[in-house]
Amino acid sequence: MELTTTVGKVIECRAAVAWAVGEPLTIETVQVAVPLTGEVRIKIVASGVCHTDLFFQRGGDGPDVFPCILGHEGAGIVESVGPNVTSVEPGDHVIPVYTAQCYNCEFCKSTETNICNINGTFQLAGLMNDGTTRFTCRGQSIKHNMGCSTFSEYTVVYETNVCKINPGAPLEKIGLIGCGIGTGYGAVVNTAKVRAGSTVGIWGLAGVGLAVVMGAKKAGAARIIGIDINPSKENIGKKFGITDFINPDDYKIPIEEVIMDMTTGGLDYAFECCGISSCMKAAMNACKEGLSVLTIVGVADLTAEVSYNPIQLIYGRTIKGTYFGGWKSRDQIPKLVDAYLAKELMVDEFISHTMPIENINEAVELIEKGECLRSMVTF
Fold first, then answer.
1. Which InterPro entries match (predicted)?
2. 366 partner at 20 to 30 Å CA-CA among 4, 217, 231, 356?
């Protein structure tokens, strides 16, 4: 990458633009503006396609976020930086993340949460802090998404959302740590804190669910039960560490009853990775009395509600939610990359398809149909 030919200039590049709710993405030539104060412009090498991208594409956050550029599992190289950026410089290898870490807010100073409140309002609106965007296409402003927009060959993000990583990590793969792998793995080790010897149940064996499986195995769980209506997930799940597989379609009784029959009183830990309210309720019903923990990982429709009988909580069950697996992004994601390089964390195994950005809608279709773990789109 010839930095001197682009620094300080508007860049024209390819991007997959979501113009309206439910419409296929279209490959466009977009203009990417120069980064302003506290901003970083990144050349994206590759990006994963995540179920959360589908959530936004389907209008899960409303029509006001369109037109926009989706994508939040990317990795790339810093092309240029705006004023006052000190933690990264041109040429650095980085992962942009949707979870900021500013170091200064009350949340960043707390050891109890990884949520950061800087830039949050504008990020949800798809804008930068000055109320504008850095993307233009056909003379129209294009909004950002999740503070990342990695379905663009170049993107502009805040320094607070950039993790500098080991340059030895393969950029065409490592972006998955920035969402799916990081979220699932962290849900186990940071949020639920799974104990060795425990029994774990995981609803949904897509990318995030399999990262939960990986984390449960790492934590020393004695029994890891995968629950999915796709029968092909049984063999896939075993590669990551499940000991048992249940397809709810194979039973005429509720899945929680099946689990109660095959365990001693239920699960010690349950993880809901589907984003489906009925699965969240079933997972709670499958938890044993005493010390059990249900962790909600999947992103549900914003109108979804789940009801539980309070007596379930009084008898010692706990419900938790996890946001990006509880990781302090800028401090801890680079350490996960190092763990991958040390062969202590699976990443390659999550990638089932790799294709150019021009095939983005094929990648979306594959994940919609459950025919892939993760597709990587490359530039």
1. ADH-like_C, ADH-like_N, ADH_Zn_CS, GroES-like_sf, NAD(P)-bd_dom_sf
2. 217
**pLDDT-based confidence at 3, cuts 50/70/90?**
low
User: In terms of residue numbers, what domain contains 299?
Assistant: 184-322
Dist. CA 52–CA 38, nearest whole Å: 26
Angle at 98 between CA 93 and CA 100, to 5 degrees: 85
Evaluate whether residue 333 is within a structural domain.
Answer: no
58 with 169, same domain? yes
The residue among 14, 121, 99 whose CA lies nearest residue 52 is: 99
- Closest CA relative to residue 328, chosen from 138, 176, 102: 102
d(CA 323, CA 333): 14
Q: What is the pLDDT of residue 120?
A: 77
Position 9 pLDDT exceeds 90: yes
In a domain, 285, yes or no: yes
What total of structural domains would you count in the chain?
Answer: 2
Residue 271 and residue 283 in contact, taking contact as beta carbons nearer than 8 Å: yes
Q: Does residue 330 lie within any of the structural domains?
A: no
Cis bond before residue 96 (omega within 30° of 0): no
Strands (E) located in the chain: 11-17, 26-32, 39-48, 73-81, 93-96, 135-137, 140-142, 154-158, 162-164, 199-203, 223-227, 244-246, 269-272, 293-296, 318-321, 351-356, 374-378
Token reading at 360: 């983005």
Domain identity same for 105 and 235: no
- Whether 124 has a pLDDT exceeding 90, the answer reads no
Distances, alpha carbon 367 to alpha carbons 153, 296, 353, in Å: 22, 21, 10
Q: What is the CATH number of the domain that holds 136?
A: 3.90.180.10
Residue 368: both structure tokens together: 């919609």
Q: From the centroid of its chain, how far is CA 182?
A: 7
Check which CATH number belongs to the domain holding 213 and give it.
3.40.50.720
Rounded to two decimals, the pTM is 0.95
Backbone angles phi, psi at 255, to 5 degrees: -60, -30
- Tell me the per-residue pLDDT of 67-109, one tens digit each, with 9 for 90 and over: 999 999 999 999 999 999 999 999 999 999 999 999 999 999 9
Residue 342, in any domain of the structure: no
What region, left, alpha or beta, does residue 220 occupy, with left being phi > 0 and alpha being psi -120 to 50 degrees? Answer: left
